[in-house]
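Q: Predict the assembly, please.
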Amino acid sequence: MNRLHANRRIAKISWIVATLVLIAAVARPAVATESPTQLYLVGVGPGDPDLITLRAIDTIKRADIIFCMESIKERFSELMQDKQVIHGYWRLFPFYGQDIEDLEGDQRAEAEKLAVRRNEFIAMVRKAVADGKTIAIVDSGDPLIYGPWAWTMEEFEDLKPVVVPGVSAFNAGNAALRRGITNSDFTNSVILTAADWEGKTDTIERLSTHRTTMALFTMRTEFEEFIRKLAINYPAETPLAVVKFAGYADREQVIQATVGTILEEVGQEDLPFEYMIYVGDFLNFRYRKEQ
Ligand SMILES: C[S@@+](CC[C@H](N)C(=O)[O-])C[C@H]1O[C@@H](n2cnc3c(N)ncnc32)[C@H](O)[C@@H]1O
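A: Predicted assembly structure:
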């Protein structure tokens, strides 16, 4: 009798457990059914390697294949040591999405050359994804601020790529200046810009009419050309700073001047690729001057 009773209890408990499991399965929130992302665009910050984020480290660790510039591989050699790292596809964005038929002469020849390289790269990425590999395209700074790989997010939209944001040279430059980039007597805004590229309407001269704070990514453009254009609308006494090697503890350097004096201040010095120009009242050095 006792045994029969025990068996009934076990059967009842089993039934309750099975019911609970079923309820849990039905009530569980929907999980993504598609395969996990295999393509990442990862920013690793400017300057020293310790400006990388934990998320970027984790993503690189999980990647099978990495596309990046050689200098990035050198900077993160330990992190990338077991990976297949591919160089040589860095600057493929020019003419992307443009109809080559509309171009002529040297431009057309250049666009055709780049299209061949781009197609080679696209085929490699698609094959790797088809083979079940995880790919990380790794770029310095933040990959979507003047990032040469930004076009890949459009190209591979169907693969649902994920972007891992990075600390931009803009952030590191702000830190070097130790001033609130959005604080000033006259303006709360910041314009991020670069040289006056052909075909764009947002020229430095137009952008500067409101004398808004401006941070300029320089990309090898003539320094004097920037200053000449800034001087059209910013008064000569407007504070201006050049930040070299932002984010490198041992190399970072700030040159403080004004729109009117910066050329003299910089003199014949050859500025490196990694420098930014900041202009605006937020740089006001009055506190320091008063001391
Ligand atoms: C192609 S853009 C890339 C910007 C990058 N995506 C970022 O968010 O920092 C390159 C330009 O960024 C600026 N830059 C990059 N690294 C820098 C650094 N460590 N210090 C100062 N400027 C830097 C320079 O103006 C350089 O010409």
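The radius of gyration is 27 Å. The beta strands are 39-43, 65-67, 84-86, 135-139, 162-164, 190-193, 213-217, 239-244, 253-258, 275-279.
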